[in-house]
Amino acid sequence: MITVKDIARLCNVSPGTVSNIINGRPNVGEETRERVLRVIQETGYQPNYFASSMRKQSSRTIGIIVEDLKQFTTTPIVVTIMAYCEEMGYRTILLNLRMYDRWQDTWFQDEKMLESALIPALKEITAIRVDGLIYVAGHGRTLSCFPEDFKIPTVIAYAASENDRYPSILIDDENGGYDMGKYLLSKGHTKISVIAGVPDNMHSDDRLAGFRRALSEAGVVYHPEWTFHGTWLRESGYLLAEKALGTGATAIWCMNDQMAAGVYDYVYESGMVIGKDISIAGFDNMENAEYMYPRLTTNGLPLRRIGRRSAETMIHMLEEEGWRPEGMRTWIRCQMTEGNSVADIREKG
Amino acid sequence: MITVKDIARLCNVSPGTVSNIINGRPNVGEETRERVLRVIQETGYQPNYFASSMRKQSSRTIGIIVEDLKQFTTTPIVVTIMAYCEEMGYRTILLNLRMYDRWQDTWFQDEKMLESALIPALKEITAIRVDGLIYVAGHGRTLSCFPEDFKIPTVIAYAASENDRYPSILIDDENGGYDMGKYLLSKGHTKISVIAGVPDNMHSDDRLAGFRRALSEAGVVYHPEWTFHGTWLRESGYLLAEKALGTGATAIWCMNDQMAAGVYDYVYESGMVIGKDISIAGFDNMENAEYMYPRLTTNGLPLRRIGRRSAETMIHMLEEEGWRPEGMRTWIRCQMTEGNSVADIREKG
DNA sequence: TTGTAAGCGTTATCAA
DNA sequence: TTGATAACGCTTACAA
Known about the structure:
Two copies of one chain form a homodimer. Chain A is α/β, with parallel strands linked by helices. Chain A folds into three domains: 41 residues, 434 Repressor (Amino-terminal Domain), CATH 1.10.260.40; 145 residues, Response regulator (Rossmann fold), CATH 3.40.50; 128 residues, 3-Layer(aba) Sandwich (Rossmann fold), CATH 3.40.50.2300. In chain A, 42% of the residues lie in helices and 15% in strands. The first copy, chain A, has twelve helices and 14 strands. The first copy, chain A, is elongated. Chains A and B meet through helix 4, helix 5, strand 2, helix 7 and helix 11 of A and helix 4, helix 5, strand 2, helix 7 and helix 11 of B. Chain A binds a DNA duplex through helix 2 and helix 4.
């Protein structure tokens, strides 16, 4: 493997000079610079990343730890983080905790499982001496197992830390529920059954709070008995659809698109027509919503904006010593996407 | 930051001994080992990855370059590679070329675009001194721009290199088309219109070849005029659906699920019933196929098996000097997934 | 403008 | 079983 010394020898200069040229320092003669750059070009020489990082005591690398790359929310966030970091001249390195592979659907309820995967990953990240860490959660919640004494600047995306040491970038679930409530009301629906996510869950609770605020502002009474709690899974939507229809509601709002698909399954079997006999809305705007028939009306997660903001926050923290965002938690608003699954039932005229 | 020297001083031993303990060498006294390990534990010391990799001249790291992490085929491959590498004690580092961000849907037709993104990435990978590289393509094809003189052991997943220097792990498109042909024939369809992908494309051509083999084996004549070429996009399925229906075919086979969704769109508008009046099949088994109504019959890409085999091949090459797979190209067979979109039209009795 | 030499944190070699 | 020392490839302070 070719080194600075080789380049120096080939050019009859010292290794120090070669290094100065590579790092764009000004104290080098024009003629020498050109000669050395040409030889570097010809030989295809690449500075050894380990040696230079060690010497410089900085890697210009940002670590990304994701809870699970399979989670549909994760890839868009990660891709955006990577793009911004690259733009700003930082490398990224990705660690995947693969929580679903290890514990299927149970892991986001119990921090113990997370901890057992997280601690080694943080050690790894520490060993790599990354400049900063962005932690991308797979489910929005308050993380209690993030260590108090972790030294590396860290930003948390899609979840929040219990102790407010780390800036976090979150879905604005409350306004998300509010916007959905307003939308359904605007189409004339006042009898709305809600298929929520698991109880005591950040997404679930906040979305419901926003939804109730919308009803309340419109002077529409909220009926708790029309709200059912599912497991976020499609099957769960299917199982709860009967109850939701049994309330006599004109619209069913599912707190994610997967459960909405489950309701679709049930409604198809029943022979009713979605968007006409019954209205259905979802949440998340996952890609699958485009493939449902009729196209699902849903509220889209601002994943790319979360990724972008996380990366911006991270790099700002790195480049401006001591800087922190104004509030340690930043909420990013969702964006409504209208399909054909919600009927307009307002009285005409 | 705490170093071996600090640990050595705290334990009254030499740095060399600490290093021996960390690396599990046997030439250390039991009592010393315990004492040192305890101090390492207490201090939370992590060996500097750069320093150690530099000295060892090996990073036990495998680089993964993906053409685009957004491509739905990529994540499952990557996740599986990461899991296997971790299992075998290797780190992975992921570089995302983001070809879609840079050039939308045009990049896989023109190697020039790829080259401009690939060369810097390969330099980066070289600088990091990874032990091996797995290149994950976003579209199956024969890559011409992979350099002749690239030194790092490389495996190509989901595409092949023009020069057969690199082992590649590919979709078995030919058998994929064959299995689909057999399936449709088994349901009594002999008048089948095909909506293929772009012409002169590896997936498109091989799938069609396999399909024709199935017809031929069954003694059914293949009608080239019933085959149309699309762009792989949903819109393209929609636009070609009219022509496909115009052939009088009883079944339409689309060479990916997205185009099948486009055909669904058209058929829904026409009022025909899918899986009854007209049969539709896809290819890929992307997640969306589960959300289509009726559930699409399709042939699933063996993405996890491609990832696994790529990683196995890589690590085998690294650990057994000079080893290469038997053939430089390995094809992995797809798996049919039956939905409700294909009617059984065999004569009863 | 260029060269010399020390040092980053680790590990391998060899001597004790 | 342990310690001293050199070396990995690069950068940087300082000398020339």
